[in-house]
Specification:
The protein is 12% helix and 28% strand. It contains two helices and 14 strands; from the N terminus they run ααββββββββββββββ. Strands 1, 5, 6, 7, 8, 9, 10, 11, 12 and 13 form a ten-stranded mixed β-sheet that branches. Strands 2-14 form a two-stranded parallel ribbon. Strand 12 and strand 13 form a beta hairpin.
């Protein structure tokens, strides 16, 4: 009996020591279960490419009426050393375009230099502001146009649409003038002015003749000297 009491006492003492030792151990949380990597998943989609989602910028074609064309029509150069000459209309075919102006009072300034690289390629017919401007020949009004250099202008095609007549610096158009209308030699089409880059103190008509290209572009052609073409 004595030995049984001794054994139970030893067991009790050992259990107490074990309990005290466990209380002195630091507390560590249980590790979270490992999550297996999802190697079969797709990568997150990238954000949208902004440039690729925008619609393409519209291609804008400028309105020719908004452009500033030069005072003289643009020209097509003749081939170098080709022996080709500028086209010429029969002499004396065109009427003097300024009412009451004598041919003897008009100077041939077609070849007058304009800067270092070009010539006038037109006639400047000096006249008081408001003087009538007349159609030099039969034809049609191809274009009514306003630009910074030429001011108020008229482009007229001859009946064959091979040549164009150009009237610039007009003060205003004659009543009823409109694009596409047929006009006759001597018809009133406008009035002398100083619009565009003309000197306000020197009103005049800037008059030019040019041979049209096959495309019949009213602003483009080969210049022809108007002076020999004028008849009183």
């Amino acid at each position: 009996m004595r030995w049984l009491l001794t054994f139970l006492l030893g067991v009790a003492v050992g259990a107490g020591g074990l309990f005290a030792w466990l209380r002195q151990m630091p507390h560590q949380p249980a590790a979270a279960p490992a999550v297996a990597a999802n190697t079969g998943s797709l990568p997150a989609p990238a954000g949208p490419d902004i440039e690729s989602t925008l619609p393409p910028a519209p291609k804008v074609t400028p309105d020719l009426t908004e452009l500033d064309l030069p005072l003289r029509p643009s020209t097509t150069a003749l081939p170098v050393d080709s022996g080709a000459a500028a086209p010429a209309l029969p002499a004396g075919k065109l009427m003097v375009p300024v009412d009451g102006m004598a041919l003897a009072n008009i100077k041939d300034n077609f070849d007058q230099p304009r800067g270092a690289e070009r010539h006038h390629e037109a006639l400047d017919i000096m006249a008081p502001k408001g003087t009538k401007v007349l159609a030099v020949a039969d034809g049609k009004v191809a274009k009514l146009f306003t630009s910074k250099p030429g001011g108020l202008t008229i482009y007229q095609f001859d009946p064959t649409e091979k040549y164009a007549y150009y009237y610039a610096h007009l003060d205003h158009y004659a009543d009823g003038i409109k694009e596409g209308m047929d006009i006759k030699r001597g018809d009133l089409i406008g009035y002398v002015g100083a619009t565009g880059n003309a000197d306000p103190n020197a009103p005049h008509l800037h008059f030019a003749v040019f041979e049209l290209t096959p495309e019949k572009q009213w602003w483009k052609g080969t210049p022809v000297n108007p002076y020999p073409l004028l008849a009183q």
